[in-house]
Amino acid sequence: MKKIKVGMVIPTWGQQCGVADYTKQLIEHTQDQSITVQVYSDVNPDLPSVMRKDGIDIAHFQYEHSIYDFTALYQILTALQQQSIPIVTTLHSWSSELACHNLLISGRSCIVIVHSEQMKQLCLADGFRQEQLAVMPIGCQSFPLQPADKTRKLFTINGHPSIGFFGFPFPHKGIANLMDALIELKAYFPDLKGYFFSHYPNYLDHEHPYYSFYQKLQTRFEKNDYLIWIKEYLPEPAIVNLLSTMDMNVLPYVEHNQKGISAAVRLMLAARRPVITTNYLYFSDLKNEVFKMPNAEADTIASSICRVFLHSSLQQELIAKGDLFLKDNSWEKVGRAYREFYKQNLSKKAGEERR
């Protein structure tokens, strides 16, 4: 049987970007003797002709609107459609304010992949077709965990409790709210420390609006020495081992006009410590594997941390359910699902051409 050749389009390939990290895992766990993947990061109008010369069977776009030039993307998708190369688009973020972008993706893609049922419903309400939407989970990876005491000693993690955060220092991640909550809790837990594993990505320059937020955070951290900011871009095994030394980890994302499913929470689950999140779309693929807060207000975050910290049975329940989620959504299982997905869609195209 002929190998299926997938052209994977990701403009931030090799950069410090969550979508690029996701794509790397997807490729590693999907390629086998029946599927081969070729990555395209140079997104320009010549891409369709390059793909045609390379014998690409399916063009798969990893889409987040900020990493694409809209005009170039319009030209590329239109040309691919004219060449009858099936277009698959994974929608990593969605916004009702991006009407032209949404119309382009829905109009040119054979299949649009989303990562939760709630995300699918948003797309349907915005005019995407039922038959073109597919829900595919983000894969989870397990990591060997070093003894927590050894890691704590090595990295001088000595808070009681120790509260962890992981993700880029962007406003909608809720970092400022978490800082406010920890400052409030310091009065009740004098030995409390917060550890923020948060790197400013190299694909954003100092002119980006997020950079001014980054500078304001810096000032706040300098005023509170028990809130510790680890800015290095660490490999995932190191991140997970550091998160495993926390009493709990928190992702207090706030509502934002651009919505997507969190990949960071999977690394927190892999650390096998209790996880607290907000009850927003970012975490809509999770149920009781995490403790969900109704909002990201500092008082709500503080009370949620207290509730989880003071109830060991709740902690163990969250960890156990998180372990099941990791197994049910392992990258190995997701990779197999994508192999079947590519084969089915190519067979569907062949059947349509014969008619």
Automatic annotation (TrEMBL):
Alphabetized SUPFAM superfamilies for the sequence: UDP-Glycosyltransferase/glycogen phosphorylase
- Name the chain's protein: Glycosyltransferase
Per the UniProt entry, what species is this protein from, by scientific name?
Effusibacillus lacus
